[in-house]
Amino acid sequence: MSLMEDDERLITGSAILSYHTCALQAWLTLRRFMPEQENPFLIVGRFIHKNSYQEKGEKEIELPGAKIDIIWKEGAVTIVGEIKKSSRSFQGAKLQLLFYLKLLSERSVRAVGRIMVPLEKKTLDIAWDDQNRSELDAVIDRLRKLADSEAPAPEWKSVCSKCGFSDFCWS
Predict the structure, then answer these.
(1) Which residues contact residue 158 at a Cβ distance below 8 angstroms, ignoring those fewer than 6 apart?
(2) Which of 16, 40, 41, 101 could form a disulfide with 162 if both were Cys (CB 3.0 to 4.6 A apart)?
């Protein structure tokens, strides 16, 4: 099923990333709530994104539901890069990147993904394979159900202190 169909327009790369961290954050993201833009952790993330890998390729490619950090060619291979400030978010970043690979695949663009953590000098390559497709499809199904539900109750986690939505949950 295409991600561009009307019932799926709420699903975004940001919602996929959020879902891995917190169901309420994903629910808010699906409803187009914005995190506090002056959150210092978001500011640092934007700085790292803006100032890293400037020589690599084209930055901030927008597709419906997606804002790809960077894309470039290595020989005949198209690489889709997701820039993160920490490797602690690898699993969420992987799912977000798989979402972008799915969107590109639906447009007949064959690509591989690369999570890039410049401050740690780490990268992780992500393939668009059957196992990853299944994992992403399961998350998309859960997000569709979440989109149709009432807001989940907030659950305190260690990441809450850094979250741009913390005032919404804990005010």
Answers:
(1) none
(2) 41
What is the spatial distance between Cα 3 and Cα 13, in angstroms, rounded to a whole number?
Answer: 11
Sequence spans of domains, the chain: 6-170
Angle among Cα 88, 93, 94 to the nearest 5 degrees reads: 110
pLDDT truncated to tens, each residue of the chain (171 aa)? 444 444 445 799 999 999 988 999 999 999 888 887 787 777 888 788 787 877 777 888 888 889 999 999 999 899 999 999 888 888 999 999 999 999 999 999 999 999 999 889 999 999 999 999 999 999 999 999 999 899 999 989 888 888 888 888 887
Pairing of strands 111-117, 77-83: parallel
pTM attached to this predicted model: 0.87
Domain spanning 6-170: CATH 3.90.320.10 = yes
